[in-house]
Amino acid sequence: MSTGRVMGTETEYAIDDPKDPGADPRTLALRLVRAAAEPDLAHIRWDYGSEDPVNDARGGRLPRSAAAPSMLTDAPEARLIDVAAPNGARIYVDHAHPEYASAETVNAFDALVQDRAGDRMMAEAAGRAGGLALYKNNVDGKGAAWGSHENYLMDRAVPFARVAALMTIHFVTRQIYTGSGRVGLGPRSEEAGFQLSQRADYLTSRIGLQTTFGRPIINTRDESHAGPGSRRLHVIVGDANRLDAPLVLKLGTTDLLLGLLESEGDSTGQVDELLDRWTLDDPVSALHTVSRDATLTKPLALANGGCADALTIQKALLDAVRQARRDINRPELTDNRVLNLWKQVLEDLAAVRSGDDDARLAMQDQAGRLEWLLKWQLLERLRRRRVIPDWSDPRLAALDLAWARVVPGRDLPWRLRGSVLRLANPDQVVRAMDRGPEQTRAWCRSLLLHRCPTEVRAVSWSRVILEEQGPDEERRTRIVDLSDPLGHTRASIRDDCDIYC
């Protein structure tokens, strides 16, 4: 078995105070993050020493004087609060949003469990912060957007230009099964309607270093939090998902395609064939077209002069991975669970495309795997029941917002659990709130926080700084190097316990 690809998620949440609708959102975010801190871990600071936000994967560095202040995450504002979570994750304030950055995992299913653990931890903190309302979405419909990011560790030997080229095709077209659905068209909901993705309207460039303005399909921040042979692909184009299947597919299909890129030396040219045939002529325009096409039929202009729809392109990506798996022996391409789910959801989409609205309303199994479809069904039934002719009706926007409300065990997606494919075991989620994943360095980070919290002074993804009292009563600093994401796992710590406090 492969050790798997190191991956994780970062989720920014929206919040409000039902008792104070006019409250400052940054103040609310600070309240929530403070409430998320375990009492014996509250003194621990985040170590920014290894962060490098202006390094560009295309080569070179952006001058700090040219960087927007929001990009300089290694020089945080004085009021920024970071919390070291007991499971090895990070909770902090990002602009006006509380954010949960999950612990490192080695496959999409484990990443799902860590992501759901974050939802529960943040919801519990919102309750302790005075009953704040927590939402897992990406837009307010009035021009503001916030992120649901993905991170993947990959081989730096793969030229970044090839990564960007293949991932652009994938990120534009995967919306058909990863989109969480949105009421409103345009950044400020200038037009009435329903679309597949929440994020699409806010992506306005092909490639770039920034994440909060001129948002690109491909983010070029080059900060691996690992050794020199690794690259972290930081993805900002995805939606926040409430259903399990789209989140697993978002992570798992990207993992498989990165494996395809890494296997090029052993392959028979699948990547070249994909790029020659399916490179998009205008990816930004195509991204918006795919999101606004619930019929799944609109053609996308290709760089070679042809046209293809998103479903056809996704079928080609799946076929390329399956062909590579047959041709070469690479463990990166052998996760049957993801491959089978990818195949199933493309069949679901073919059924959706062939049906009219009445047929789509009756698609229970497909809707349990396609979040945008399930949300559309709820909205469409409301429209028919209340005879709502126009998608600009505020009752539809209210239901869209209700879908995003995070109340574990009681929120809208949970109440539909009989119709929804569940891939995260609830008991695993509860355990994941307290302990880091066993197969990555997050296990060690979590272990140190549990075993010797008073000695831990600072943490980051790649190291933990301890301050210990020596035999001469002097305080001494010791650094636990976690630069290897697959080192200091549960198995290795059993054999080398003496290096830990």
Task: Compose a concise summary of this entry.
The protein has 501 residues and is of the alpha+beta class. It is built from 17 helices and 18 strands.
Describe the protein's architecture and organization.
Helix 3 (160-173) packs antiparallel against helix 5, helix 5 packs across helix 8 and helix 6 runs antiparallel to helix 8 (310-327). The protein is an alpha+beta fold and 501 residues long. The chain has a domain at 141-354. The model has no long low-confidence stretch (mean pLDDT 92). It has 17 helices and 18 strands. Helices cover 38% and strands 16% of the residues. The chain has helices at residues 25-36, 108-128, 160-173, 175-178, 244-262, 270-278, 283-291, 310-327, 336-354, 357-361, 364-367, 371-386, 394-404, 412-415, 426-432, 442-451, 490-495; strands at residues 7-12, 14-16, 45-46, 82-84, 90-94, 97-101, 133-135, 148-155, 182-185, 191-195, 205-208, 216-219, 230-235, 300-301, 307-308, 456-459, 463-469, 475-481. The longest helix has 21 residues, at 108-128. Strands 4-5-6-1-8-13 form a six-stranded antiparallel sheet.
Set down the secondary structure blueprint.
Elements: E1 7-12, E2 14-16, H1 25-36, E3 45-46, E4 82-84, E5 90-94, E6 97-101, H2 108-128, E7 133-135, E8 148-155, H3 160-173, H4 175-178, E9 182-185, E10 191-195, E11 205-208, E12 216-219, E13 230-235, H5 244-262, H6 270-278, H7 283-291, E14 300-301, E15 307-308, H8 310-327, H9 336-354, H10 357-361, H11 364-367, H12 371-386, H13 394-404, H14 412-415, H15 426-432, H16 442-451, E16 456-459, E17 463-469, E18 475-481, H17 490-495
